[in-house]
Amino acid sequence: MKEGSITKQPGMEIGIYTLADLGPDPHTGKTISARQRVAEIIEAGKMADEAGLDVFGVGEHHRLDYAVSAPPVVLSALSQVTKQIKLTSATTVLNTVDPVRLFEDFATLDLLSNGRAEIIAGRGAFIESFPLFGYDMSQYDELFEENIELFRKLSTNEKVTWNGHFRSALREAQISPRPVQKNIPLWVGVGGTPESAARAGRLGTGLALAILGGDPLRFKPLVDIYREAASQAGFLPEDLKVGVTGHAFIGETTQQAKDEFFPYYSNYWGYLNSQRGGVGTRMSRAEFNQLSAPETALFVGSSQQIIEKILHQNELFGHQRFIAQMDIGGMPFKKVAENIERLATEVAPVVRRETSK
Fold first, then answer.
1. Could you tell me the pLDDT band of residue 1, with boundaries at 50, 70 and 90?
2. Domain locations in the chain?
3. Pairing state of beta strands 170-174 and 159-162?
């Protein structure tokens, strides 16, 4: 294989991502080990690659109820058992990582994967990494701004001289290794704040929208803000990328998908709310039915229903990428594997065809 030779399929990129949560199966009450969870993530990545999906993402958490705290390590393992699929963090908590270390880790991943490394940067759902690594939450925005600016400088220069507020200065520092790609693709993950969307546009990074429910129309202003900020900063429209990330479950029929997914989805939000310090009340079936209605952003249904939702959002956002989180709520790997197959064989071909017209 030539350096950086990845087969680009026409139309929208389709992929999956995992946050590696360790939740109990709602039907059995059993929670798998971190070792098994990581092994299943590697197997899911292999399946996604062999099925022809475009992207595989791994999240970062620093808690005992999640199995992955070091995405570049897991992605490096995946790089050795996959051939084409792009490998991204989902997300890297950029505020609490040294940008030099981050660049070196992902440049190494890029070498191992022959040019397939990417980064989605953001705060993530939790704040444990701030005290863990000695950072102050009150400096969240300043840390993010400084770290992303330094990362971008490291990407374009083999030797860097730099001064900042939060780490030691660099004096003609050699930044190695250099990746296969000219620049490791960088996306900013945005959950709903206009300031984050504007920042992504101003910096010319990709915009990764986390749309977990509700009417997707409410996210269109964020895409507009992103593109306007990018235009004002001098970036060309064709250089901008928008991605949508969201929860998904695909069944033979929409009713079957809802019936199968509900116990896991309710379970997931129950323990997620507890982890965030709230009351771990499980979602009711009525609430779930409302969240998974045809006009909402929750991707639960038949393959046709998922296709229609993705294409509807594409009309709103004109996005180039969709990646789905499927393995939540203690879901057994067998069901995850079935979803990967359906996404790759029934959904992706239609979406790619329709979005390449």
1. very low
2. 13-355
3. antiparallel
